[in-house]
Specification:
The complex is a heterodimer of chains A (about 200) and B (about 180).
Chain A: H1 2-27, E1 51-55, E2 61-62, E3 70-71, H2 77-81, E4 85-86, E5 95-101, E6 104-111, E7 119-126, E8 133-134, E9 144-151, E10 154-160, E11 166-174, E12 180-187, E13 190-203
Antiparallel strand pairs in A: 1-5, 1-13, 2-13, 3-4, 5-6, 6-7, 8-9, 9-10, 10-11, 11-12, 12-13
Chain B: H1 2-27, E1 41-45, E2 51-52, E3 69-75, E4 78-84, E5 94-98, E6 105-106, E7 117-124, E8 127-133, E9 138-146, E10 152-158, E11 166-173
Antiparallel strand pairs in B: 1-3, 1-11, 2-11, 3-4, 4-5, 6-7, 7-8, 8-9, 9-10, 10-11
Classes of the chains: A alpha+beta (about 200), B mainly beta (about 180).
């Protein structure tokens, strides 16, 4: 009888602990909880982002730091509002080759602004399921990047620093016809200021 | 020994089952927001910081534009979003509701176009990406981003055909 009572008390305690624990784990994350689509994050060979992309200065501007990084010469009305027409791509990297690799994407960055540029300056691999990968903006910064596929024409990227705080947000938006890729980025402090890099598809 | 093992096994199974049950019960409401969500405030558009280039049509103008005040409030664990013509207006032009639960929500632009829905995704507490569409086509992509200090709110919207040409509306917090 005493043994049964002890068992009942033990079982009740364990059940209570488990119930409370399960509840706390989820509700404790309400304000920071990501809500992302349950789409297949695996990259398929016909993914519209796969291809060779070349920088288009006429549809781009760099204003993320609030400073002008372009010239009034040849600027359109939109660029006039955001620091002028860029004289070149960011860091001189005007060719991106994006390929499918191990269910994810490989990125290859080339210096130059033509499809035949061969000066490879950086390459990295990521999946689109939110798994962290190191050094999204290059080594030595202690950053971690995460990519999410939201839609066939939309990918989001979040970069966090050493302290886990968000340091950069990026979206990669494809046009309906899959021929234009616009990469916008901003700092968490100033989402009203953005870099808008636009690329045209040069080859599949 | 055998009885003792069976007893432990029963405890372990019960523990796992009820832990999962607790988790399941909680997750029914796990997408609910509370009042600390950074978007919850009254916001008035800062005309000097805003630009209107969506659709590749530059429409920068000094003329007053409507929809200048947006009020975001907690409602039933989700967002009640109301747009007002001016900061002084008291009757909303648009009143919509949505939650971040992975579902579509009707009429993100007040029923125009008919049949439009929005699917809002929460990337982090300061950042949502919104896909608006009808059964026929995408009608809008937009980003809602609250600055890290919580004092500024930026709405960036574009037509899918021209992702480089965007409206960027910047709002200042007024309460």
């Amino acid at each position: 009888m005493q043994m049964n009572l002890r068992r009942a008390v033990l079982l009740g305690g364990l059940l209570g602990l488990a119930l409370a624990g399960g509840t706390w784990i989820t509700t404790g994350q309400n304000q920071g909880q990501r809500v992302l689509p349950a789409v297949d994050a695996k990259v398929k060979p016909d993914d519209p982002i796969i291809g060779t992309w070349v920088f288009d200065a006429s549809r781009s501007y760099f204003n993320r730091d609030g400073k002008a990084h372009g010239t009034p010469e040849g600027q359109n009305e939109m660029q006039a509002q955001f620091g002028g027409r860029p004289t070149g791509p960011l860091g001189g990297v005007g060719k991106w080759v994006i390929g499918s690799e191990r269910d994810g994407l490989s990125f290859k960055y080339y210096k130059g602004t033509t499809a035949d540029a061969t000066d490879l300056v950086r390459t990295f691999f990521c999946t689109l399921d939110g798994k962290p990968y190191p050094d999204p903006n290059g080594p030595g910064r202690g950053e971690v990047g995460r990519f999410w596929r939201l839609h066939p024409l939309m990918i989001a990227r979040e970069v966090t620093g050493k302290d886990g705080q968000v340091t950069e947000m990026v979206t990669l938006a494809l046009s309906t016809d899959g021929q234009v890729l616009t990469v916008s980025s901003w700092l968490p402090e100033t989402p009203n200021l953005q870099n808008m890099q636009t690329f045209n598809k040069a080859a599949k | 020994m055998h009885a003792r093992f069976r007893e432990l096994l029963v405890f372990a199974v019960a523990l796992v089952t009820v832990w999962g049950l607790g988790d399941r019960l909680a997750s029914a409401d796990s997408h609910d927001l509370d009042s600390t969500f950074p978007l919850f405030a009254s916001w008035v558009r800062n005309e000097a910081k805003s630009s209107f280039n969506r659709g590749n049509q530059v429409r920068q103008t000094t003329a007053p534009r409507g929809n200048r005040k947006w009020v975001m409030q907690l409602e039933n664990g989700g967002v009640r979003q109301r747009h007002y013509d001016t900061p002084e207006s008291t009757d909303p032009l648009v009143s919509i509701f949505y939650k971040f639960d992975g579902n579509e929500w009707k009429d993100p632009h007040g029923g125009k176009p008919p049949g439009e829905v929005v699917l809002p995704w929460l990337i982090n507490p300061h950042t949502q990406i919104r896909h608006c569409y009808t059964p026929e086509k995408t009608t809008e992509w937009s980003l809602y981003v609250v600055s890290a200090d919580g004092k500024s709110f930026t709405v960036t919207a574009w037509d899918e055909a021209r992702p480089w040409a965007r409206n960027i509306q910047v709002f200042d917090k007024v309460d």
